[in-house]
Amino acid sequence: MLSIVATPIGNLGDITLRAIETLKKCDVVVCEDTRVTGNLLKQLEIPKKEFISMHGYSDSKKIDVIMHRLRKGEHLALVSDAGTPGISDPGYALVSAAVERGIQIEVVPGPAAFLAALSGSGLPINQFVYIGFLPLKKGRKSLIATFAAEERTIVFYESVHRIEKTLMEIAEALKDQPERKIVIGRELTKMHEEFLRTTVGAWRAKPLQIIKKGEFVIMIGAI
Ligand code: SAM
Fold first, then answer.
1. Is 12 exposed, middle or buried (0-12, 13-18, 19+ CB in 10 A)?
2. Residues 6+ apart with CB under 8 A from 32
């Protein structure tokens, strides 16, 4: 069986009982960085496990090895460095391969940064569109241009290096909609968690001072 196990996005207290149980009882943990997952297991006082690391999104040789082990009846747990596997993280290709081969899967849900961000955003979240990371070059401008007509809350991830540039691009693309709300979630669930709130018009008049440290989720309110 393949268990898809969500892990904390910065606060160990967010690990679920089922995640702990699953990581304890599985035969192998499939992860990204073995040091990150090794550290998590250590903090949870789970005895050392065999790890298979999968950095790429579709490492076909590794997927074959994993499928072979699953077919032999072993119990594998898939985790990512943080949050929910497959959400802007490796995992999709593995789950897809397991599903195609009729291998039993189970989900062990838990944290995801975009859900934490949306829940504290104060924006309408009955409907939203999750974009992952914006493309760096090709298609970036045209994707941002679609925000002007989006009737759902928009949520995406951004790195510390591009946060200001991206906000400037968005403010420019939405300049005819000065009331559109912008919410930035930084370091969610961690010691320095904060939500910064502005509008396109206010940002254009005076950009917010953003502490350029940590991890960010950007949300744009609907039209
Ligand atoms: N799988 C993860 C999830 O379920 O959210 C996402 C992994 S993605 C590679 C990493 C990005 O998620 C970061 O660059 C940041 O944009 C966002 N992120 C992860 N943890 C965060 C946190 N604690 N606060 C704010 N954003 C976070």
1. exposed
2. 53, 54, 55, 80, 81, 89, 90
Q: How many other CB atoms are found less than 10 A from the CB of residue 159?
A: 10
CATH 3.30.565.10 at 2-108, yes or no: no
Tell me the pLDDT of the chain (223 aa) as tens digits: 999 999 999 999 999 999 999 999 999 999 999 999 999 999 999 999 999 998 776 678 899 999 999 999 999 999 999 999 999 998 999 999 999 999 999 999 999 999 999 999 999 999 999 999 999 999 999 999 999 999 999 999 999 999 999 999 999 999 999 999 999 999 999 999 999 999 999 999 999 899 999 999 999 999 8
User: How is domain 113-220 classified at the CATH fold level?
Assistant: 3.30.950
Residue 3 CB less than 6 A away from ligand 1: no
Number of neighbouring beta carbons within 10 Å of residue 84: 24
- Nearest C-alpha neighbor of 185 from the set 91, 118, 136: 118
Cα(215) to ligand 1 centroid in Å equals 6
Q: How far is the CA of 167 from the centre of ligand 1 (A)?
A: 18
From CA 223, how far away is CA 221, in angstroms rounded? 7
Per domain, the residue ranges of the chain are: 2-108, 113-220
E strand map for 164-220: 181-186, 194-199, 216-220
User: Is the full-model pTM beyond 0.90?
Assistant: yes
Is any ligand 1 atom within 6 A of the Cβ of residue 10? yes
